[in-house]
Specification:
187 residues, mainly alpha, three-stranded mixed β-sheet, 8 helices, globular
Length: 187
């Protein structure tokens, strides 16, 4: 299997190595993220699927380049160069990207520019809502274990209203409605 997407991503960031934050090797950073995520039953399930399906998790130095690349069966987590500890935000993002990998394995394709604009928008929004719901579920599970810092992380990420809706109604129409309400405010 080619490493072309990984190499392109590294080149885009201007990095030839995937060095993580000072004091933590990329492998140690990944292990710490996985440990944080594994404290949630949903996170543990997603990590199990990734292991069974050989979905790689890579830590790279940079900003705004995280995501799941189906072509390479890999999740990339971008870590700011000055970050020396694992954040709850990154653990939640890892959970969302592993969920995207799971959906891809189940046959749900990523939005594609070959789709009509309406189909593309629906597919993109469904993917975003699902990712937010998974992050809310993980944060909720950890909150029930007394780890409120994951809910705080969702609030810092700007998803406080989404979390409150998830806690009150679950992953139903109300969550879709609040997603579109927030999207209209910011769009």
């Amino acid at each position: 299997m080619s490493n072309a997407p990984f190499e392109k991503l590294q080149n885009m960031l201007g990095r030839k190595s995937a060095d993580a934050a000072p004091g933590l090797s990329p492998d140690r950073f990944r292990q710490s993220l996985e440990q944080a995520l594994a404290e949630s039953p949903t996170g543990r399930r997603l990590l199990g699927i990734a292991s069974q399906q050989r979905i790689a998790i890579h830590i790279i130095t940079g900003k705004g380049s995280s995501g799941y690349l189906p072509e390479n069966r890999a999740v990339f987590i971008s870590v700011p160069p000055d970050l020396s500890t694992v954040s709850e935000e990154l653990a939640l993002e890892l959970g969302a990207y592993l969920r995207q990998a799971e959906l891809q394995l189940l046959g749900h394709k990523n939005p594609d520019i070959s789709m009509g604009s309406e189909d593309y928008t629906v597919a993109f929004d469904a993917k975003m809502i699902d990712s937010l719901a998974v992050m809310c579920k993980i944060a909720s599970e950890l909150y029930e274990k007394g780890k409120t810092n994951f809910v705080d992380a969702l609030v810092r990420m700007g998803h406080g209203e989404v979390y409150e809706t998830y806690r009150k109604y679950g992953q139903g129409q109300e969550l879709v409605d609040v997603y579109y309400k927030i999207s209209q405010k910011t769009g």
